[in-house]
Task: structure prediction
Amino acid sequence: MKRAARVFAISLVLNVLASAADISGLWTGQVAGRGGEKQDISFQFKATKTGITGKMFGDEFDIPVQDLQVSGDHISFFTTATNYYDGSKSKFVFTGTITEKEIQLTRERAGGEAETPAKEAKKGNRKQTFTLKRLTS
Result:
């Protein structure tokens, strides 16, 4: 009975992975940073026996991707960045659409206090959309 349950669980995981778009590999693009300057951003996704894992890489950091979900051609996950100077944490939620060679992502800062429209305008848009290109698979 245990063996049958194990075989069922493995086949279920394999079916989920097979029905989802294959995102394994290295993906890279550019996102607007402070002052509108373009910053390089990359993600590495790996298929494992239990699901898909990922890491986000920037100029001076690498951050694990959390709660990564792929369903068909849709992807969602979040990252938590720690401010180097004061130790504060910021959560960023990513959602997007996957094609064979690109991922169109939207990044949005989660939580935080509501700002006045003037402060929001000064800080810039909380949502950013950008495209990642597949480098390797």
Observations:
- Confidence is low (pLDDT under 50) at residues 7-19.
- Residues 22-136 form a domain with the Lipocalin fold (CATH 2.40.128.30).
- The longest strand covers residues 38-48.
- The radius of gyration is 17 Å.
